[in-house]
Amino acid sequence: MYSNLMYFLEVLLRLCLAFILGGIIGAERETENKNAGFRTHILVCLASALVMLTSEFIFKIYSDKVNLDPARLGAQVISGIGFLGAGAIIKEGINVKGLTTAATLWTVACVGLACGIGFYMGAIISTVLIFVALLLLKGLRDKFRNSNNISINIITKDIPGQIGAIGSVLGKYNINIGNIKIVQVEDDENILLVLNLMQVEEKSMLNVIGDLKMIEGVCSVEQS
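Below the sequence we write its predicted structure tokens.
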């Protein structure tokens, strides 16, 4: 009876810890309004812990009868979590979003596996480091990204091929477009393109703006 109670408490501890740690990571994603948020991360972490518990349970029962690998089910979780990660990645024009969320889903599955096998120290320390990477290092990432970034506003005729023509000019100067926002202005014939240019040398902007203004249909180009 005592043994059964201890085993029950051990299982309860592992699953509850997976629930809590998955929720901590998911809470950060929820505050960022990501598709895979609080509940998704909890479920992934909890399910991964259950898989390892089940694998351990099967191993204890049948290890003396057949050759078993207790890590086999856990390995399937690592490879199988890819379908959730793929669902979190979204391509919007030239931008790809959701890579960080996909990575957290994969990572939280690993945390769940650690909880399920009873590797509490590894699971807790990893969760703390994951949370630090997601929350505290975000400002540092943005600082690096924006250090050499420049935004420009282009008012142009709403005609086919304009974005391609603008991209060709920027490509000539080896400038990458980080983000494009298209805004419809009051004049139905024109649109406003807000471009975030990455790794731009300030001294080259005069030439860039001059070449952009020479594109047919471009009305104005301003650095914001």
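The first strand starts at residue 90 and ends at 92.
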